[in-house]
Design a protein that fits this description.
The chain contains 15 helices and two strands. By secondary structure, the protein is mostly helical. Strands 1-2 form a two-stranded antiparallel ribbon.
């Protein structure tokens, strides 16, 4: 897909996602909770996960309205994970998406509740309207998101991260941590997007899953690289904190040069895996480029 075509698709979808989130994350809630939820979700972030949901849906000719709900649901889980990740009991960060973190702008208890409320809102979005012809298909979407966010997915990965801080992890253990804390939700984004369409042939489904896993791992490898090579200004979050906090990363484990090679290998593998889907997967292919080549 031509770069300019991908960029105009991205711009249009980012606007659509922003409007949907704007409408679905309520301001009118008790106390300042709604305000804090909107602060944590709106107007920031690359929105890679929603773009993956929408691109996967488009690759399989799925229902756009369903995909937009699913895209926002995945982003809400991601936003909640960032808000909790930044809290003093976790990574203790003060800057996120170029703004003070939620617990700094509001307070810790509010940040905790914002995360809780965003997580349940994500499932509300998936549940309150019919998103698939078959109820079973919609239940499958709910399950994909639940597993990806829970103890066998993101939350489990975050637990490994906390337990591993200050330790040296062997490469297979590091991979397990990254696959859980970041890979699982990214994989779910792709699979949920594809679930908005008709069931896929086995080779297509397997190819999409291989793509999703490779992009998910590549995402965190690049996040590790950017922490050492990016600047606070471009990242919108404090650079250089992983080594200060003794976080095991791909950079600490294998060095920046090898980590870059690995990200490239994962990009090629992800793109090769899309072959069974043909040209319908062009946007997913470009998103793999974006994930690996991004500078923020
Ligand atoms: C950062 O995610 C945290 C990780 C899972 C690596 P993103 O880099 O997608 O953060 P935003 O959404 O663009 O702010
Ligand atoms: C966070 O990983 C992963 C999740 C939020 C689940 P990091 O701790 O590396 O993310 P950043 O670098 O703070 O964005
Ligand atoms: Mg963290
Ligand atoms: Mg962090
Ligand atoms: Mg990081």
């Amino acid at each position: 897909m031509k770069r300019s075509e991908f960029e105009s698709w991205t711009r249009a979808e980012l606007d659509a996602v922003e409007s949907a989130l704007e409408a679905w994350v309520p301001a009118s809630t008790p106390a300042c909770l709604g305000l804090a939820m909107r602060y944590g979700v709106l107007d920031g972030g690359k929105r890679v996960r929603p773009l993956l949901v929408l691109a996967a849906c488009q690759a399989v000719g799925g229902l756009r309205e369903a995909a937009m709900r699913a895209a926002c649901a995945v982003e809400l889980i991601h936003a909640y994970s960032l808000i909790h990740d930044d809290m003093p009991c976790m990574d203790n960060d003060v800057l996120r998406r170029g703004k003070p973190t939620v617990h700094v702008e509001f307070d810790e208890a509010t940040a905790l509740l914002v995360g809780d409320a965003l997580q349940t809102l994500a499932f509300q979005l998936l549940a309150e309207h019919r998103l698939a012809d078959e109820p079973r298909a919609q239940l499958e979407m709910v399950k994909l998101l639940a597993v990806a966010a829970g103890s066998r997915g993101m939350a489990g990965g975050q637990a490994i991260d906390l337990e591993s801080t200050g330790k040296v992890l062997a490469l297979p253990e590091l991979e397990v941590m990254h696959i859980h804390k970041t890979g699982a939700l990214i994989r779910a984004a792709v699979l949920i997007g594809a679930a908005c369409g008709k069931p896929l042939a086995e080779t297509e489904r397997a190819g999409l899953d291989r793509y999703a896993k490779a992009v998910g791992l590549a995402f965190q490898v690049v996040d590790d690289l950017l922490d050492t090579e990016g600047s606070t200004a471009t990242l919108g979050k404090t650079a250089g904190k992983d080594s200060k906090q003794g976080k095991p990363t791909y950079v600490s484990a294998i060095g920046a040069a090898r980590a870059k090679e690995l990200a490239e290998e994962l990009r090629s593998d992800a793109q090769a895996a899309l072959r069974p889907l043909g040209s319908r997967a062009a946007r997913l292919e470009s998103l793999a480029d974006f994930v690996v080549l991004r500078k923020f």
